[in-house]
Design goal:
Glutaredoxin; globular; alpha+beta
Length: 215
């Protein structure tokens, strides 16, 4: 009998370690089929809430924010590319030269959750940004991704053209920040147990198996 586990995946769509963490989690859940029944929810976190709509050059941004040298940036990107490849996700670093504001993407993800298509949209957003270099703050792009995820494009446009779900997203962001979440991905199981970062699948598998046995 499968043990139900609620999993809140706190992340940003412009965070490369978040897609690595998600792919690792999904790999672990595949390995645990029959033992765990995951109820997965994606929660918002903005790495750069003050980022303007036009974005910023990514190397410039990382250098300013983290003090990394161009050589360190290049090494980190290669590490990310290799980790993604191990999990079946292709990072095309040459396609991604800017970092963007992601608030509207989070509003759309909130709506997608109400429509039962949140995971599909999350994956579409990750692919669009990290593999295709698309702008996750552009409304035309977001509508296209919503349609790819099986959502109604007209309704998606209406959400984006309004301030729908803005208060909900802000409230969820505050909720997790007030509980100490300062970096992502943060994976919270049954509102109690935290796994931080883009861990390998075996880390998620071991933790989930242990929690399922305890339950």
């Amino acid at each position: 009998m499968s043990v139900p586990l609620r999993i809140d995946f706190v992340s940003d769509v412009s965070c490369p370690w978040c897609i690595i963490g998600l792919k690792s989690l999904e790999t672990a859940l595949d390995r645990l089929q029959g033992a765990v029944a995951a109820d997965l929810h994606f929660q918002p976190f903005e790495l750069n809430p003050g980022m303007p709509q036009e974005g910023q050059d990514i190397v410039e941004h990382i250098t300013q924010k983290y003090g990394a040298s161009p050589a360190q940036v290049a090494a980190n990107r290669e590490n990310i590319r290799a980790r993604g490849a191990e999990l079946g996700f292709t990072f095309r670093m040459e396609q991604r030269d800017r970092i963007y504001n992601t608030f509207d993407a989070h509003r759309l993800l909130h709506w997608a959750g109400l429509e039962g298509r949140q995971a599909a949209l999350k994956h579409a957003l990750f692919r669009a940004y990290f593999a295709e270099g698309k702008n996750p703050s552009d409304h035309d792009t977001l509508v296209q991704l919503a349609e790819q995820a099986g959502l109604d494009g007209v309704k998606a446009r209406a959400v984006l053209d309004s301030d729908a779900y803005a208060a909900d997203v802000r409230a969820q962001e505050r909720f997790y920040q007030e509980r100490g979440i300062q970096a992502v991905p943060a994976i919270i199981i049954n509102d109690r147990h935290l796994i931080s970062g883009g861990q390998p699948p075996k880390v998620f598998e071991q933790a989930l198996r242990q929690l399922a046995q305890q339950a």
